[in-house]
Amino acid sequence: LLASTEMSSPSLKTGAYILIGVGALTMLMGFLGCLGAVNEIRCLLGLYFTCLMIILLTQIAAALVIYFQKDTLKVELSDIVVDLIENYDPSDEDKRNLQDAWDYVQAQIACCGWTGAKEWENNEILKNKSNTEYPCSCSNRSKDLVEGGGFCNLEDPVNGTATYADWPVHEQGCMDGVEEWLKDNLGIILGVCTGVAVIELLGMILAISLCKNIHSEDYTKVPKS
After folding, report:
1. Digit-coded pLDDT (tens) for 32-76
2. For the purposes of burial, counting CB atoms within 10 Å of the CB of 217, is it exposed (0-12), middle (13-18) or buried (19 or more)?
3. How far apart are CA 135 and CA 139, in angstroms?
4. Residue spans of beta strands (DSSP E) within the chain
5. Where are the bilayer-spanning segments (predicted)?
């Protein structure tokens, strides 16, 4: 959902570019580390140490940006989702992947809209049908969830019109659902992040230790193209 370049905010784009850069650096780091350790080349081990340090500092910087800019990111994400809901169209193949991703979020978290189901009343298609249809992925009925996405027909609408209050959908907005999920899994998230940081620190320590134990370098061991 957040990877969509046509709807993402500048902050989210910057975050995506940072992750791409870290991924590329990780691949380079692994190659340099293996080559330096096998052939006992201090220069390559030094580059390995430097790459690990840059990755660790980048992760710390990203965590600080998220923490101090969380309100801004929340507003930007809200704008993205609200625009997606208003322009949601099951027949639009160009936005199919993005819309399927949002349907998945609503179905998995059991939520509807960003702050609530009322936001779906602003959808152009639903307004034209007097809200006698509703998003299937919001439904609290298992038979609607089989559809996966798109709109489901409301049974027996009054005078051919309805409001979100008449829909058989979840009351909770996805913003609250995501926040609850993060709170419930905060321990796991922090544990994984701490584990990754510890592994990176151990790698830096091992690289320095190996460098100190290498008294002479034989560059003839380095593969030549």
Report:
1. 777 777 776 778 778 888 888 888 888 888 788 878 888 887 888
2. middle
3. 7
4. 133-135, 151-153
5. 16-38, 45-68, 188-211
